[in-house]
Amino acid sequence: MKKISLLFILIPFWALAQSKGKKYPAGNGGTIFLPQGDISFADEVVDFKRGEPDAVSESCDSTLSLGISDFVGVASNFTSLGCGGKLTLRFSDNALIDIPGPDLYVFEVGKYIETTQLFVSKNGKNWTNVGVISGGVSSVDIGDSVNLGDVFHYVMLEDLKSDCKGSWPGADIDAVAAIGSGTQINLKSAVLFDFDKFDLLPASKKELDKVVELIKNEMPSKIIIEGHTDNLGSESYNLSLSEKRASSVKNYIMIKLNAFKGKTSSIGYGSSLPLSTNESKDGQDKNRRVSIILLPKANN
Questions:
Q1: How confident is the model over 65-75, as a mean pLDDT?
Q2: 183-295, superfamily in CATH?
Q3: What is 232-264 written as a DSSP string?
Q4: How far apart are CA 146 and CA 148, in angstroms?
Q5: pLDDT at 183 over 90
Q6: 18-179, CATH topology level
């Protein structure tokens, strides 16, 4: 299993402000337009179970499936799943949502699209089967399988062994992107609260004021605020603390926005969605956070 480092405090606002829609090479000819631009792409490998037979060694690096699509030729910049292989990815600076039409695009390279089963998950534990990618089509509408307004952080691709011959058996994945994508801002709890508390620190309000300005600029249709903790303490205590922290952030943002016409919700996940290991102090610090997800309007 391989992981990459994540940005835990706050995504630079200049980067978010410049995150406009772009067209990207589709991997099999043509282009795909992503309304949220570069942040649309999955950016963490959670798990990789290589299939059998496996691919040649240069295509077994699971991190080649991350970030912006960058396939440039044979045997470069993509991950081969191998026959029956399974790849689990996470969105950390955005989130997958259901919009009208296709919601997810899998940048599979090569002449043919090998058949893969696609799953999505909110927490990386409970998975929803949203269908099969096959027949040369890499765009997927998750709307028939999920509830409107659901937010997903994980995607899993499982090769269905439709082509297990050659040097690159199984699906060859260059990137995975959320067409239906919401901006996600991760704030360390240490920036917002004293340890074990849920009242906002005076200094935290400067950071939240930056978030408010971003919201005013983006004018999202909905704001979802998630509270997260490490695994110290009981599950019930952590859940309660994360709910109270998310609510504190929501209340402050709503007061500042005043006339915001979109929907706003807050939810606590306790320690159920860690970004890092809880076996170290640094990992625990990274897991204590509040995530603010901005869902775009349907016509954005």
A1: 77
A2: OmpA-like domain (3.30.1330.60)
A3: -S-HHHHHHHHHHHHHHHHHHHHHHH-S--SEE
A4: 7
A5: no
A6: Jelly Rolls (2.60.120)
